[in-house]
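Subject: design request, 371 residues
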């Protein structure tokens, strides 16, 4: 039994797994999903408690990306975790998840340059490692506007960024989460520091791989100081180009990141394999197994997995857990459906972002559909 819990012998999606202090009932993770239903003060709504509780059959839920500060915001309708009202509402959400038998980690997020003055406190220019303008648009009020050229953070401002994550991690503890996932993926601030298209700094936070990884590792250590290493995970997306990001040589960069996170012995490494939301096969990419070997801890695979390839990922030892986004979005009882081979509800992209209960809390379980 002990061996099984450690994942050392053959297992499948439905085998329990020991993750830090927790025994997860299965290896299916609900991936972090932006749903854009928070209010204009970045407070998650009441429906969020129902939404997450409905998905408590997941071995682990990762919350939607949650900004650590007002500065870390880049979209309308995303929640924060930097004030009392937000903490109170997150507490209601985590209580609902626990009442339904689930576990939920908070995903902590700073968007960096993927923002706009109109979304920033005092209409300040968005911050980034370097003043490199992203190609892209941002939705504000009723339409899209172009992203702006960000301002490069001064070296003396870096401790303030680390403090934003530290404070948010403390808030998440008070809000009743089971752990933290640090969002270092998909072209947001920490990924902007990692990759050389967006990091052109000449101080200790730019240049070499070691320097570009420094901010992520310092933030990870700051969050560990509050939560302990075994309740902190990190999400990366080495080959994703979403949000106009890339690196000239991603393999050594992300192998180093995986090694260093392994040395810190964090709870898990969550990897968006390939191109976010589309395919795991990317021309000129590298085999994510290298990351797993370098990390040497619990590895969560993500990106377009289904039942069959998810099972194979676990059975072959490629991954310890698999995270599902769209499937969990439209199937609150996804674990049961996979277990029984039941058909899946298709997700409706029109209700992914913003709106109300439609496409949020009204996807039926198998039992509800049968009734
Ligand atoms: C889709 C739309 C808005 C944000 C990410 C937080 O990619 C996101 C996100 C995804 O990690």
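Subject: RE: design request

Done. Sequence follows.
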């Amino acid at each position: 039994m002990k061996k099984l819990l450690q994942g050392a012998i053959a297992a499948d999606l439905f085998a329990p797994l020991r993750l830090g202090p927790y025994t997860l009932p299965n290896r299916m993770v609900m991936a972090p999903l932006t749903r854009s239903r928070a209010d204009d003060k970045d407070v998650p709504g009441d429906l969020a408690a129902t939404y997450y509780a409905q998905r408590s059959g997941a071995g682990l839920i990762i919350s939607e990306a949650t900004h650590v500060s007002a500065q870390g915001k880049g979209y309308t309708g995303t929640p924060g975790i930097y004030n009392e009202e937000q903490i109170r509402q997150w507490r209601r959400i985590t209580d609902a998840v626990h009442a339904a038998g689930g576990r939920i980690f908070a995903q902590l997020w700073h968007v960096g340059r993927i923002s706009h003055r109109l979304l920033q406190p005092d209409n300040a220019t968005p911050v980034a490692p370097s003043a490199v303008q992203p190609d892209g648009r941002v939705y504000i009020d009723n339409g899209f506007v172009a992203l702006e050229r960000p301002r490069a953070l001064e070296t003396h401002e870096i401790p303030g960024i680390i403090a934003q994550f530290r404070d948010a991690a403390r808030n998440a503890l008070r809000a009743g989460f089971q752990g933290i996932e640090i969002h270092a993926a998909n072209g947001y601030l920490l990924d902007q520091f990692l990759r050389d298209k967006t990091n052109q700094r000449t101080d200790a936070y730019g240049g070499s791989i070691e320097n570009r990884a420094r901010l992520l590792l310092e933030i990870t250590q700051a969050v560990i100081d509050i939560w302990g290493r075994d309740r902190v995970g990190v999400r990366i997306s080495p080959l994703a180009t979403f949000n106009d990001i890339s690196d000239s040589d991603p393999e050594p960069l992300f192998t180093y990141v995986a090694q260093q996170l392994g040395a810190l012995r964090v709870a898990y490494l969550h990897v968006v394999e390939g191109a976010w939301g589309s395919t795991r096969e990317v021309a000129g990419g590298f085999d994510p197994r290298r990351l797993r070997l370098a990390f040497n801890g619990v590895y969560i695979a993500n990106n377009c997995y289904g039942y069959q390839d998810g099972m194979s990922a676990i059975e072959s030892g490629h991954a310890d857990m698999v995270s599902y986004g769209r499937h969990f979005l439209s199937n609150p009882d996804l674990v049961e459906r996979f277990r029984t081979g039941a058909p899946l509800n298709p997700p409706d992209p029109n209700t992914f972002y913003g709106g109300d209960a439609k496409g949020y809390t009204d996807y039926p379980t198998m039992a509800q559909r049968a009734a």
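The first helix runs from residue 2 to 5.
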